[in-house]
Amino acid sequence: MGSERIPVLNDATDYGLWKKEVNIWVLGTQAKEAQQAARLIGFMSGKAHEAAIQILPAELGTVAKLTSELDKLFLKDDTQSLFQAIEEFEQYNRSKEDTIDDYIRGFEQRYKRLKSLREDKDAYEDGIKAFKLLHQASLTSEQKRLIRATTETLTYDGMVKALKRTFGDGSGIISSTSNDQGKNANPYFSAASSSGIKIKEEPVFYTKDSYHSSSSASDRSGYCSSGSDKRNQHSSTSDGEKDDEENVLYFQG
Q: Phi first, then psi: what are they for 43, rounded to 5°?
């Protein structure tokens, strides 16, 4: 009995969660029923302790009597607790350090907290909850489109499965940057590169015709080399330059 963990109640404690912990503690404690309330008071501080010691020992009785008196003090603050729970849930977003699995756990913990303050009533319709799970996951626009394309019905369970299937297990293929430009914005490229898949790249050769069809040679990357060095040795400078232009090879890696 000396090693059992007794729920602590102070000014920083969530009263609703404390009551749930007390209910579990009552089921497992070896303390007699008449002693349980007194033991709980010994682990209180702040306004909870001040209220509890005002109860006459003869009236203290059981844990139920103690919590009924404390309800008068704490339950009037439930509205403020609900405001706080909604705010915490609405402002929760996946950080760049979190895997998608960590994010989903945090999302569900905050929603359960909000739901408990509503007497276990859902705060959001299932489809809205699914949308919020996706919206607050800090994904790029391309990654969101990928999830939407693979989601047939907008349900919370379906959204959880889609996110875990695509980005789960700490794969690290999601990027929390809001920049949708470049390869990192492409979910297919991100998935391939992070999983060790190599993307084959081959050189592209441009002939004179394809080069001159572009708007500007400066838009292409590469280098130029003469294809008729020997012939240029027997021609004038101007003729050589003309031949070089006609036989130029543009290479882009």
A: -115, 30
The Cα–Cα gap between 188 and 174 comes to 11
Alpha-carbon distance of 147 to 161, in angstroms, equals 10
How many C-beta atoms lie closer than 10 Å to residue 14's C-beta? 17
For residue 30, the SS3 value is coil
Phi, psi of 249 (to 5 degrees): -120, 120
d(CA 147, CA 139): 10
Burial class (CB in 10 A: 0-12, 13-18, 19+), 192: middle
Residue 178, SS3 per DSSP? coil
DSSP code of residue 8: P
How far apart, in whole angstroms, are the C-alpha atoms of residue 89 and residue 106?
A: 9
Between CA 222 and CA 185 the distance in angstroms is 25
- Strand stretches in 85-171, DSSP E: none
Question: Which run of H or E residues covers position 88?
Answer: helix 78-90
Stated pTM of the model: 0.50
- Residues 149-178: pLDDT tens digits? 988 899 999 999 999 999 987 554 554 444
Q: Could you tell me which residues are beta bridge partners of residue 204?
A: 252
